[in-house]
Sequence to fold (272 residues):
Amino acid sequence: MKLRTLVAAALTVLVGAPLAAQTPAKGMTFTSRMELAKATGADAGASTDMGEMMANMFKGMMFPNGPVEMEYVTDGESVRTELRGQMAMLKKGSIILYQAGKTDGVVLDPAEKTYWVMKTTTPPEAAAVLAQMKPEVTVVPTGVFETILGHKAEKVNVTFRMAIPIPAGAEVPPNMPTELVMNMENWCASDVKMPSSVMKLAGMAVQGMPGFSMEDMVKACPFSLRMRMRMSMMPGWEMLTAVTKQGEASPTADLFKIPEGYKEVPMPKIGG
Fold:
């Protein structure tokens, strides 16, 4: 097992259920921006050689071409997301469909007229790593509020702390940390809820991440308008996610269907 597997396990936590938690339940469209950037502020901390290496690896896997915008639209049950940049194994222009009543997501490639099925289960290799981590998870609503895009948003702090299992023979660099800590500062709106289809998908994803208490995070933060996440493996860096605009929508049912003539292909792997 290589270091890439450990990073993939972290990506499962960071990009799986938390992203699903950013989908409102009424007819609505919104745009979200995600990037990895140098940390700012008095508590930013200094980067290290290890942090720079991990940040470059993370960016190469998640954001190879820089920040990514995602345009969402939902009718309250199904959800469609279009990527305005490449994110992990998702190509620029990819369209992700979470269809009401379905157990898996579907990723469309309009350029190639193909699609592949995004399984809600965690990949076995990453699941084996996650199962050994036994994280400590703390979710703390702060009682601090701010108005963001017309929503009353509460600051909710989430901390994940876990040991990183390093299997015998693993290819890891010198001074590889043995513990991973993730601190997430979320600004959460409680007046927007997730569609039932996404709740089901998120629930299935949580089953593949035992002990990560995603239920507590989703309960405390139904809709994240802004998030700043810092990881101990990447000191001096932070992942930023923010909803940049939103509006009402009345999408047609065809928008959530696989277009005629599209051919199914295998699911790609993170990092190619």
Observations:
- The mean pLDDT is 79.
- Helices lie at 3-15, 17-20, 49-62, 124-133, 196-207, 214-220.
- The domain at 3-264 is CATH 2.50.20.10 (outer membrane lipoprotein receptor (LolB), chain A).
